[in-house]
Amino acid sequence: xxxxxxxxxxxxxxxxxxxxxxxxxxxxxxxxxxxxxxxxxxxxxxxxxxxxxxxxxxxxxxxxxxxxx
Length: 69
Prior knowledge:
- The chain is mainly α.
- It has three helices and two strands, in the order E-E-H-H-H.
- The chain has helices at 21-35, 39-48, 54-63; strands spanning 5-8, 15-18.
- Helix 1 packs antiparallel against helix 3 (54-63).
């Protein structure tokens, strides 16, 4: 994954990393692979509000429905 741009936000400890759409998708699918779940399974967990792990819930918070775009 390449970082397109990294810049400092208004606060000294905040960093904003901007990714291309493709880089975001690659990172999201890599995270799903690490958790050994599909995006559809993650969406179903979110619908039921019953995640298989804290990592799965954290991933949903990070990517939500973004892969449906």
